[in-house]
Amino acid sequence: MRIVNILPPAVHPHRPWAPPRTYQPVVLAQVKKKHLNRSRLDQLLGRGEVNELEKMSKTGPTGNKGNKGTKDKSSKKADQNGGVTVRVRLTRPNVTALALEHNVLQVLYTGCAENPDCPKEPGTSGFLYSGFGNSGNSFLTPHFIHLFVDISVLQDQTGYCYLGLYKCTRREPFSASKWKKLSDQEQLLFARRTRDNTPDFSKIDLEVIRAHYEAGWVLLPCLELQFVEYNVQLASALAEDQETDSESRKRKREVKAENKVPSQERLSVDVKISGELQSTDLDAQRRTSAGCDEALESKLETRKKIKLE
């Protein structure tokens, strides 16, 4: 199959971008690592303008379409585990007092399952494979954003962990040698993201897109995440809320369990009373039946006497 480079070169006023850089980890004196889900973080920090940096099609990692209007299980799991990189600009009046207190104006949610080079510990820097196709227009200028990463693939806990304040900068894409180091599953995933976000690739087979990357005609986009600082007070507030929320859920379960015991006792009492009532009714029926039999025998004796006379 002859592969034709049909992807037009992207032209941005900020090019040429600087090459990706690596940074030494920063040793932190204190870290509060807790995991919270997106809905809880929205409640704690607030809501605002949500921007998904890449569109995700309703297909699995291999690009096989599922039922119309639905996502397959693998896609659902990817979305829940940070498969989509989402930037949220907190806006009034939806921003909370906690976010204002710690000057949290932008939040970035992502996952290390689809971004193996993203930061995984507070104090570390890394990269996101973000900017496929038309989404390459994001982060053309540096942004300072509080980063939350889902590292559930590395730990048993699920949810997003706060890693700190990061400087997010668009960098020159990685070379083809970086692409060749990725696994087949990762290559298929990024090929699918490229197709989803590039109109010229919308009808191109995933294997053809992979071949484009292999040949170096299409390059892996790079968003550099440089660690700036770790807000211990914010991390502590989030950790305390999680502990309080966990205690509240635990107490609710205990109360629910306690309420079940009286219900069972009432049920057993009702059954016992019902049994006693049933027994009483049977006794009454027996006595009534015995009384009727005695009256009938008395009438028969009376008739016999009359006939004999």
TrEMBL record:
What is the species of this protein?
Sistotremastrum suecicum HHB10207 ss-3
Regions of compositional bias (Low complexity) in chain numbering? 58-67
Annotated region Disordered: the residues are: 47-84, 241-272
InterPro entries registered for this protein in UniProt: DUF6697
Q: Where is the composition biased (Basic and acidic residues)?
A: 69-79
Specify the protein name.
DUF6697 domain-containing protein
Q: Which residues form the DUF6697 domain?
A: 91-240
Pfam family membership, one: DUF6697
